[in-house]
Amino acid sequence: MSYSLADINGLFAQPFNDLLFQAHTVHRRHFDPNAVQVSTLLSIKTGGCSEDCGYCSQSARHHTGLESQTLMQLDAVLDAARAAQARGATRFCMGAAWRGPKDKDLAPVLDMVRAVKALGLETCATLGMLRDGQAEQLANAGLDYYNHNLDTAPEFYGEVIHTHSFDDRLDTLGKVRDAGLKVCCGGIVGLGEARASRAGLIAQLAALDPPPESVPINLLVRIPGTPLSDIPALDPIEFVRTVAVARICLPTSMVRLSAGRQEMPEYLQALCFFAGANSIFYGDKLLTTPNPDTDRDRALFEKLGLHPLEPGGAGETPRAVNVRSVL
Ligand code: SAM
Ligand code: DTB
Ligand code: SF4
Question: What's the rounded Cα separation, in Å, for the pair 11 and 9?
């Protein structure tokens, strides 16, 4: 079923219990409700980015005190991937603070993809906008997923990002899909956008054809020195509503409870899992900011009776692995 923008606004406006019941019902129809996919992130190239995304610690235009680092060496990336695998991650996502890779940047990243894939991990990369042919090179190297977020609704995009456009993002997403890669595409909420823009973001994500296999919902991490550092925090109930609406409109996509978990109490994360979130970033760090440490996540999984998901396609009935032996 496809949802119009008016439908999606209507979903947001429902009584909370009705919305959560509907979202959880959709979730159970398509997924094991107790299985959560776990990915670990690594920033392979940090800071000094030419872009001006208002939320980001890595823009060269913001004074966040972040120390820039050039592209990591292959050995160091592999050490991090092995450590993530030993802790129970099944997917390893490599992020670079680029507007997009130059061809000379891409060659060493292709080596990283090949080597991480050879460990038996699923691979994901987020490198910014891609030029013709680059998505194919990534696919040939063994990349499984490419992350490229629409971030916010088209009408709000220009309030947050001025150095590239919403249409530029769609263009890269098209290249990624045409190369046969799986798409990881979501957004950020808590940027000061209206509810209608949260609905507009979900409408755009749901209109991608086919829909993204993975949909990260990031809650803004307010970073001192960025233009959005003083934005009032989003109401947590509104955040849960956003997860629930994403689940309803993207019924077969993995919905990832992404940035912002460090500040979330367990009961809020539990509500998000009930509302249909079924993947997380696992490991003490996101790209540049903290994430709950793995002991805390292991304890949360135990408490909620959740288990990590083995690799498998979106929409497939996931096979569970034993939480005690893996996490
Ligand atoms: N440079 C690439 C790009 O912009 O596509 C890849 C890395 S970028 C950091 C990946 C995503 O992280 C962004 O699209 C945004 O959704 C999310 N993100 C970045 N900073 C964030 C923050 N402070 N809080 C929440 N999410 C954030
Ligand atoms: C996504 O949607 N969220 C991740 C991943 N894709 C690359 C990144 C979150 C970044 C949070 C801020 C930071 O750590 O710099
Ligand atoms: Fe650069 Fe990506 Fe950060 Fe934007 S979100 S400033 S493109 S690293």
Answer: 5
